[in-house]
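Q:
Just now I want nothing more than another pair of eyes on a protein record. Here is the record:
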Amino acid sequence: YEGIIGIHDLTVHSYGQGRTFASVHCEVPAEEDILISHDLIDNIERDFLEQEGIHLVIHLDPVITCDEKANELQKKVLEGVKALYPQGALHDFRVVWGVTHSNVLFDVAVPFSVKDSDQQVKERVTRAVEALDPAYRAVLAVDRVGVVNELED
């Protein structure tokens, strides 16, 4: 759908024909009017029910898209993640810029096949972020996924 810039955290529960429920987080530009984004989400939920018979609930995630400094940092962090985990991906990326340090917040998605524990993934990715600049503080969560969504590239 035009206006959706990424999705993540998709969960589907099927209880037989006509009894499928799903939830997903949809990323939208934070700069967009909230009423327009909310209308888009309502339309998507309706379309899935009418066309697919899926009762979909969407969590709207606003993403700041006009911060070039954060966008460049996101690219560098993604490169670092991919150097560690070639099938890795990011979502919910944001930066809280500070005077003495900046918090770099995001979720890193890695396949179930990655042998490192979530704690090991977190530690390795944190070191990669801090190697970009000692003032960066990585605040991240690890998601395990079957298939990595490449929309954020």
The radius of gyration is 17 Å. The first helix runs from residue 34 to 52.
